[in-house]
Amino acid sequence: MPSQRVRVVQGSCWPCKKRRVKCDLAKPVCQRCVAAGASCDYNTRLIRWSTRPSVALADASALTSSGGGAVTSPGAASVTFAAAASRAMRTIQRPLVNDEQRALGYFQGRVWPLLTTVPDPCAPPTPFAMQHRVVMLSMCVFAASHRYLQDGRGEELITPARSECLQVLRAHVDGVCNKRSDMLPTLLFAVLLLYLHDGFVEGSATSATLKHSHGVLAILAQLGGLPAVIGRGHESMDMLLSEFASTDLTTALLQERTPAFAPDLWPIIDKSSVWWGRDPLGRCSLAAVFEDMAALAIYHDELRSGVEILSVDRVRDFELRLQPIYAPLTPEDLDGTGTGSPETTTSSPPSTPAPGDIEAVEAFKLVRAFQQTALIYMYRVVCGLSAYHPLVQQHVDSCLDGLFEVPRSSNIFHCVIFPLYVAGAHAQSPKRREAVADMVGSIFDDMRFGSVRAIGVALRDVWRGDPDAMSWRTMFGYLSPYAVVL
């Protein structure tokens, strides 16, 4: 009768060993087995773990609890998120394979921060993905495609992940058709991610961006409209919806059509979690600019259909509302004690700006860029002015000057593509065009989104012709309709 083995090193339970995952050594049963639904025999059969170095894989529990410093909300939000993640881990029906673990970690650490300008954005929908496989597969498709553009690895993972995702998605659609309305929020999460993936990462003729856009609108209609969804679920859902509404608006402006969301919905969107950063003092709002841009698009459609006639007073009203704003002077600036006064700059070293000051400056820069872009659209499309008209060029120059001042390390650097595309297409001098091309290249190097590369190609096509003789539709017709611009 052999003597019972004495455990002298950290080991593993047998189910974890069979699944080739790292056992967490928790007693009386390991949480890896609990999450996978396996029967843990931790106390009956102890297996020594191999001493060979293993591939560094993201722990699923760490993905859903910590989330990395760059993408986890501070304070109480982190505690709530961790609690939700813990519940999700206990309800998952199948263990994550290594590729899925790696994809979730990549999505959270690399992709999610690219979708927002906020320094501390809301947490990604990882707990939701752990509970609903269709959401997890959508995130895996997003991560696999972006990783291939990033470093050229993992191309073989894209097609299988996408095929499985679409298969599960169709099953959910069939469930909705069979009166299972409880599946609609899950379906909305997945289709939103696929829409952003196809529009941002791919943006090619083979993308299903338009179909996913129609799918999102159909699901929202079934749920009672955007106001019935905003603020009712996870923060990440609100942020993705703000991203969808923004890209629908910019696409509508480029294609001269009416946006899907009415102007009065933007104040409702602004009350929830959004992709853009806010001024801490509430002195400016990008949602207000989007509201005016949507009103401009509707006014243009009314002019085109003959419902309205061009009114100088209406144009002047839009000019007044879209007048570029700047941060007002503070009392410290007025009494000479601010950081920018001559006394402080000569007698003492410049002080480091507070985080709130940086957020305010970036918020005003982003708002100004979109205001000037909206004015370019108004003069070109609504008023019918040529590309090189002085009124148009006035705002083209101001917009480009402001964009060129945005440092590459800024949080808004990768979210000024729409203003850069519109103003850059109207640039006259070769020097400005070269600067625009360099900035587009820098943004692509940082983001690795296929839509950014497509914008660079479209700009060169515009510059090869005569922009002053081009209509708005011709100028922006070089870009694929499946690419999303923001």
TrEMBL record:
It is found in: Nucleus. The keyword Nucleus applies. Keywords: Nucleus. Residues 12-42 form the Zn(2)-C6 fungal-type domain. GO terms for cellular component: nucleus. InterPro entries: Fun_TF, Zn2-C6_fun-type_DNA-bd_sf, Zn2Cys6_DnaBD. One of its GO terms (molecular function) is DNA-binding transcription factor activity, RNA polymerase II-specific. Residues 340-349 have a biased composition (Low complexity). It comes from the Eukaryota. Residues 329-355 are annotated as: Disordered. CDD domains: GAL4. SMART domains: GAL4. Transmembrane segments: none annotated. This is Fungal-specific transcription factor domain-containing protein. It comes from Plectosphaerella cucumerina.
